[in-house]
Amino acid sequence: MRENDKVIYQAHEWMTGMGALYLQVAVPEIATIFTTHATSIGRSIAGNNKPLYDYLFAYNGDQMAGELNMQSKHSIEKQTAHYVDCFTTVSEITNCECKELLDKSADVVLMNGFDDDFVPKGLTFTGKRKRARALMLRMANALLGENLDDDTLIIGTSGRY
């Protein structure tokens, strides 16, 4: 790094928190930002069919991490939130979750969302949709060794991992 370089490390979610914490010690000239879209303990609470937002005020993040056997994830996330230069989240409700479960409110709330101007309009959209559907059906036919009808219901899903 040169003396006038301005470098920012942007970490998203607990998995990248160790990098931000390392930089705080090893290269403190690099600014660190940590963004969470939901807390790992909040996801785990909800994933275990416990009411998250109705009882958010009553949960202790450290205690719940022990109960749900996820102390390591929670610890990394909490320490990162507390020690980066700037802690951000994506909504007011997630900020409440951070305050209650990580004992730290976000420095900045960067609202989730996107500008839909990039979505094609009218006939352009219709044409792209038809071509994409035809491609998906060809791919499904090849993978399944079938000849699916043109009106076959296609359900798509995606995720983080």
UniProtKB/TrEMBL annotation:
UniProt keyword list: Glycosyltransferase, Transferase
List where the protein spans the membrane: none
Q: Which Pfam families match?
A: Glycogen_syn
Xref: InterPro entries: Glycogen_synth
Q: Name one GO biological process term.
A: glycogen biosynthetic process
- Supply one GO CC term from the record: cytoplasm
Question: What are this entry's molecular-function GO terms?
Answer: alpha-1,4-glucan glucosyltransferase (UDP-glucose donor) activity
Protein name (record): Starch synthase
